[in-house]
C-alpha cells in the first residue's frame, strides 16, 4: 500500500486527479449498489409509493452528485499539499469543472425530488371517480407548481455556476438578488411568453379550468389533457388536439361544463305534427329512462317549448353524471324516441299540408299546377 501511495504521489498532478476521479467512481458505485437496493426492499415491505419512486428517480443524479463531491474533495486534498507555483497553469481553472458538474447534478437531484413529490400527490389524488372536482383542482396546482419549481432550481443552478468565474460573478449575483430577478421579470413582462406564464399562475390558483375539465373552446368540444407554462392542450372528441394559449382563457369567454361538478343536463328536440299526443310521449319517456344505466334519475321531463307554422317543438330533458355519458344518453334517447314515433304515430311526423287540408307525404312539397 505504501509503495502504491508513493508511486501515485510521484506521478503528475493531472494523473493524480484522474486517479482520484477513478477512486471516487469506485467508492460511490459501491455505496449506491448497497443503499438503493435497501431502499427498494424497504419500499416493497412498507408498500411506500414515495420511497419506491424516490429510489427509481434519484439513483442516477445521486450517483453522479456523490462522484463529483468526492472528486472535488480529492482534488482539494491533492492540490492542497502542493506549492501553487508548481501546479500546471490549467489546474486552478480546471477546478471549476467538478464544481460545475456538482451544481448541475445537485440541481437535477432537487428537480427529481420535486417530481417525486408530484408523483406522490398524483398517486394519492387520482381522477378515477366521476365527480373528481377536488382531485382535479389539486393536480392542476401541483402540475403548475412543479414546473415553476423546476425553473427556479434551474435559475439558481445557473447562478451558482456563473459565480465560480470572476468575469461572470456579478451576473450570477445579479440573477440571485431580488433586484436582478425583478428586473428580468419587468424587462420581459411585455413578452407573450411571460404574459402566458403570469396567466398560468392565475389559472392555477383561481382555476377557471382544471385537468380533465370538459370545455367548449372556439366551437370545439374537448377535455383538458395538459396545462403547460404557456398553453393548454385540449383533447377533441375525435382525438384531435387543440392547442390554446393560456391568455385565451383570461381574455376570452368559453364554456366549462365541469366547473363545479360533472353532472349535466342534456336536451333532445323532436319536431312533430300539431296533432301529436304529447302526453303519450311523456309517458313513454317516463317508462324508458329508468331502463337506462346512464340516467342518474335527476331530470327526465317532456315539454312543448316552441311552435312553427308547420310543427311543434318537443323538448325532452335528461340528466347524467358526466359529459361523456350525457352525450351518449342524448343520442340513445333521440334514436329511441324517433323509432317509437315512427312505429306508433307515423302520421304525426312533420308534413306539408295542401290547401284542401289533406297532408302530403312527409318531406314532399306540393307541386304547383302549371295551368
State which percent range the strand residues make up.
5-15%
Radius of gyration (Å): 35 Å
End-to-end C-alpha gap = 124 Å
The count of DSSP E runs of length 2 or more, i.e. the number of strands, is 8
What is the domain tally?
Answer: 3
Multimeric state of these chains? Answer: single chain
- The number of distinct helices, counting runs of at least 4 residues, comes to 12
Give the integer mean of the pLDDT values.
78
Kindly describe this structure.
This protein has three domains: 2-199, no CATH class; 209-256, SH3 type barrels (Roll), CATH 2.30.30; 264-348, Alpha-Beta Plaits (2-Layer Sandwich). With 371 residues, it is of the alpha+beta class. The chain contains twelve helices and eight strands. The protein is elongated and about 110 Å long. The protein has a five-stranded antiparallel β-sheet with strand order 4-3-2-1-5. Strands 6-8-7 form a three-stranded antiparallel β-sheet, with helices on one face. The chain has helices at residues 2-9, 13-46, 49-80, 91-94, 96-124, 133-163, 169-176, 178-188, 192-206, 246-251, 278-288, 323-344, and strands at residues 214-217, 220-227, 231-236, 241-245, 255-256, 264-272, 300-307, 312-320. Helix 2 (13-46) runs antiparallel to helix 3 (49-80). A hairpin with a 3-residue loop joins strand 2 (220-227) and strand 3 (231-236). The model is unreliable at 363-371 (pLDDT under 50).
